[in-house]
Amino acid sequence: MADFTLDEDQRQIQDMARKFAANELRPIARECDEEAVAPSEVLDKVWELGFCANAIPENYGGYDLGRSALTSAIMVEELAWGDLGLTMAALSPLLMMVPILEFGADEQKEEWLPKFCGERFFPGTAAIMEPRIVFDPLELGTTVETQGENVVISGKKCMVPLADQAEHILVYASPRNGDAPQPVKAVIVDRNTPGLSIGPKEKNLGLNALPLFPVAFDQCVVPASRCVGRDRGIDYMKLLNLSRANLSAMAVGVARASHEYALTYAKERFAFGEPIACRQSIAFMLAEAAMEIDGMRLLAWRAAWRLDRNEDATKDAGLAKMYCAEQAMKVVDYGVQILGGHGYIREHPVEMWFRNGRSFSITEGLAIG
Amino acid sequence: MIDFELKPETKQLQQMTAAVANGVFRPVSRYYDDHEHEKVKELYALVESMTPPVRKETEGEGKKRSGRGLAQGPEPNVALVVSMEELAWGDTGILLCWPQRGLGNSAIEAVGTPEQKARFAGKFAAMAITEPGAGSDTAAITSTARLDPETNEWIINGEKIFVTSGYHCDAVVVWATLDKSKGRAAIKSFVVEKGVPGMTVTKVEKKLGIRASDTAAIVFEDCRIPYDNILGSPEIQNRGEAGLGGVMKTFDATRPGVAAMAIGVARAALEFTKTKLESEGHTFPYGRSPLHLNAIQKSILEMEAELEVARLLNLRAASMLDTGIRNSLEASMAKAKAGRAATLVTQKCVEILGPIGYSREHLVEKWLRDCKITDIFEGTGQIQMLIIARSILGFSRDMLK
To answer: Which CATH superfamily is domain A236-361 in?
Structure first.
C-alpha cells in the first residue's frame, strides 16, 4: 500500500547517519572546504560504517546484508547534509564496487570485491565525466576499441574522485566498432598504465573537499578481461539510474542543510522590531523550500524504490535528478538570500552550500548506491 | 515501510473511475461547459446505477469509513485521491457536481454525531463559508446564529457567496458566529436543509471555468433550523481551531482531494499535448542530460516532474490520514504544490499547442480555465503557504500574518 514511513532498519540507518553527519562531518566541513582536503581519518570513519562490506556477499569477504538503493538514498541524504564533498569522497569506493558487484563476471568479483572488505578505506573510483560543454553521459567521447586480447582506451575525463590515491580507475567509454552505437563499457584501468596521465588537482566552484582530477587516456592498452562483465558487459543505464537516484538524495541533504540554517536565522534575526521570519516575503521562501525539499525527497525515493524492484527506472531517475538539481539550486539560493549580506560572508555556511548545490545539474555518475 | 505501490483494491477503483471519466465525463465535458449550470443528467444517472450505495457502510463503522463513495478499501484516503485524479482527468466541473460528495458532506462526516450522519445521509450538502466581506479570513465572517430559547431553534442571518453546488444541493453547512465579539472561537457550523423558510439562493455565478458546477450566493433571513443541526459543540471555547467546531479539520481531508483534481486536469492537458507532439514526430528522451533537450522537451519533462512531485506529496498527505497521523502541514504542501504546478502546466500546454491549445474545438483551453480554481478554492495557494510557514516556524497567527 502507499506508505511513506521508514521501517525499523531504515530508521536506524538514518539515525546513525544523521548523528555521524552532525558529529563528524559538519564540524570540519568549512575547514575542509577552505583547505580543499578530505582528511583520511574521515574517510576511514565513514568506511567503518560498513557501506561497502555490508553489501558484499560473504564468499567475497563481506557481510551480505544486501544492497538497497532506497536505504542508500536515506543514508546519503543525511551524510550530504553534513557535507557533500566529504560524503562523495568517502563513498567514492562505491563508484567502482557497485558496477563490479552488479555486473562483474565471477572471477572479477573474486578478484576485486575482497579489496572492498578490508579494515582500511580502499580508494576506488570511476571516470565518467568529460571536460566539454553540454556533457551527456549517453554520448561519451572517450572510446574503447577491441584489439585482439586487449582494449585500447582514448579520451579525456575530468572530475575523477581520488584519482591521486586510487590504484585503479573504472573508466566508462564508448566502443568504437563501426557506426552503430554500442553499449558503453566499464573498464578497470591501472593508474600506471602507459598513456594514462593524471593532471593537477582540479579547482572548482564547490565540492572543494572532494579531491577531483582530470585523467587523460592516450591509447591506453588494457587486457579485455578488465571489461566489467566481460562479454556480457554492463547495464550502463541502470548504473546511471542508480547514480541519479543517489545524487538526487544528496541534493535533498544539501538543500535541507541550507534550509534549516536559514530558518533558524530568520527566527533570530530582527529587523523592524521583529524576526524577519514574521514577514511573508521571507516566510514564504522558507515555506516553499520546505515543500520542495519534501517533494524532492519523494521523487528520489521513488526512483530508488523502483531500482530496488529491478524495474526500469530511467524515467523516474531522470526526472528526479533533473528536478532535484533545479530545486536544490533554488533552495540554496534562498538560503543565501535570506541571510542577505551575511549569507555572502564565509563565516556562515550557506555560501558553501550554494556553491556545492550548483554541482547537481552538472555531475553525473559521481555517486552511486 | 516505504512503498509507492497502491493496494489492489485501490488500483481497481482507479481503473473503474478512469473508465467513468473516459466513458461518462469526457463525452459531455464540452456540453456542460457550454451549458453552464445545467444539471448533469448523466452524473445523476450514473450515481443511481451505482447501487447499492457505499453510503450504507458509514454508520457505526470506524473512522476508516468516511462514507464517501470513492473513499473505500484498505487505504480510503489514498483511494479517494487516486480516483479523484482520474475523474478530474475526465472533467473537474462535473466531478464537483457529484451528488453526496459536497464539502458539506465532508464536514458532517468529520464532526457530525451518529444521529446527524444518519439524518443527513443521502443528502448532497454544500458548504457556505465565504461572505462578500470575508474569504480566506474566515474569522471575519458576519453571519450570525442566535438561539431562540422558546422554540429551541437556531436563527441564522447573513449572506454567503461562492457556495459550490449551492444551487443543486439538498443542504448547506453554514458557518456563522454565535458572538461576533468572541472571534474565531464563536464560529460554528450549522446544517440548513433546502426549502427552509428564510433561505434564498439569490445568484448563480458565471465563472471562468468549472462551469458544470454551480456556484451560488445564498441569503439567510431569520432562517430557523432545529437545535440539533449544529455541528460540534455549541460551547464557545477559546482553544484555537476547536472553536470552529473542529470543522477546520475537514480541510485536512479535503485539500488532498482538491490537489488530486488539480493533478487530474493538468495530466489531461499534458497527455493531450504529448500525444499531439508525438504525432508530429517529437520524442521525450528521459535518460538524456537535460542540457541536450530542446525547449519543448525540457518543458514537457519539467511538467511531468512537477506533477509527479505534486502527486507524491498528495499521496503522502492522504496516506497519513489513512494511518491516523495529523497531516495539516502535508495536506497544505500537497494543495499548494498541486494547485500551482497544475495551473502552470495547463497554461504551458496551451502555449505549446498554440492555436490548437487556444481553440475551443479542443478541451485544452477549458482545462486551463478549469484548473485555475484549484489554486483558489479550499484555501488559495497563498493561504497554504501561510499555513506551511507558520507550521515550520512554530509561529502563531499573530506572529505571521
So the answer is: Butyryl-CoA Dehydrogenase, subunit A, domain 3 (1.20.140.10)
Work out how many domains chain B is built from and give that number.
3
Q: What's the gap in Å between the CA of B362 and the closest CA on chain A? A: 29
The secondary element (H helix, E strand) that includes residue A155 is strand A150-161
Q: How many of the other CB atoms lie within 10 Å of CB of A34?
A: 12
Residue A238 or B51, more confident: A238
Domain that holds residue B68: 8-99
Which amino acid is located at B351 in the chain?
A: E
Whole-angstrom distance, CA of residue A48 vs CA of residue A132? 37
Task: Please give the average per-residue pLDDT across A170-188, as a whole number.
Answer: 89
Element holding B343 (H helix, E strand): helix B328-353
Which of the listed residues B244, B267, B289 is the one where a domain comes to its end? B244
Q: Which helix (H) or strand (E) holds B323?
A: none
C-alpha to C-alpha distance for A277 and A271, rounded to whole angstroms: 10
Interface pTM, i.e. ipTM: 0.96
To the nearest whole percent, how much of chain A has pLDDT over 90?
Answer: 97
Please tell me the predicted confidence (pLDDT) of residue A223: 98
Out of B74, B78, B385, closest to residue A287 by CB: B385
User: Taking CA atoms, what residue in B is nearest to A312?
Assistant: B287
B328 contacts chain A (CB < 8 A): no
Phi, psi dihedrals of residue B229, rounded to the nearest 5°: -90, 0
Average pLDDT, chain A: 97
